[in-house]
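FAQ
Q: What does a multi-component entry look like?
A: The components come first, one per line:
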Amino acid sequence: MKRMKLDKSAVSADDEKKTRLQTASQCPTGCIEVETDIDPGLEVITLDELTIECEKNKSHKSFIPIDKFSRLDLLSRYQDEVTEQAVKVLADLTVQVTAAWVSEDRPEKYPSGEAEYPYVKERGGTMLRKGSGYVQKVVTYGKGSGMKDPCECRECRYSSSARDVWWEVEVVSARHIIYDHTEARGANIDLFYDGSTGIGRKERKKMKGYNSMWGSSVDGDRCVLFCPTHDEQLAHTLKDLCKTADRLVREANSRHQHQVGPHMAVVVSHPHGCQKYITVGESTTTDKLDEEGRQTYTYTADTCRGSSGGLVWVVGRWELTSYVTAPHSRVLDKRNNKSGDRWLARLIWTNNRFKYT
Ligand SMILES: [Zn+2]
Ligand SMILES: [Zn+2]
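Then the predicted structure of the entire assembly, as tokens:
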């Protein structure tokens, strides 16, 4: 990657299209989108300050900063208050994921056997990388919660006076960013990195992963990290946001279920390791739901390196469920990006069989 000042005035629509075509042709099986061109001593907050040349979206004009987002940025058929508020709450739940350690257990190749698995050459060493993720759930543990497990954070594990109440925050991301528990325990999670300290903005917070992961899949390119926290205010804020997101996503999905034409796809991520941005496009295909409730999306909403693991919501694809978000996985071709598996739906036993809702 060449470091050079980006001259936006020199970027034409033709240049951008050509760049996307070149990028796609270099990635016949799809390129993951992790930012590794990182100067640890320099934090670039906005895409305007970027000093590297982006090979995919040179001008980044479709990337909307969180504080500039409004319903007018949505496709015209979706410009209602419920959908706008749902996008804002999902954006609040989106996080940046930073990791360095590369597990010795990463496989040589993807299960299909065609392509090399990311960071194989760095196994047992480090590769500083930035991607995205999103909070999907917060669970209270300890005194008064009915859950007795002791806190597993580093501070409590080596202390004689471990905290008696703590919270576990579940963060979904892409498996190619965080492969296993050895990578998870060194992962840093950046919350509310919105690049603005204006009225109404939430204070930026940090969490760490710990020695555990679940619900993860290599071919589904999805992982779930657990992040312990003692920050009661943060835990309550995230719990409230999850609850509100659940309600608004259900409402918006119900409202837009019968839209004519392609469904709207929204992506929230941290492109190039910068602050949070929203992109909007159309959902182009949706895999059939398999018997385990797994499914991926393809969409035209723009993504860049750093967007891997970011939140993808296809509005109205499912009538009621809020379990429709999926982590962004890769560039598929010159027009489409692709998600990992959407989160498994709720499993319910009904009429003598399991059913996903
Ligand atoms: Zn870019
Ligand atoms: Zn603890």
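Q: Is there any commentary attached?
A: Sometimes. For this entry: Helices lie at 13-26, 81-93, 154-157, 181-184, 232-255.
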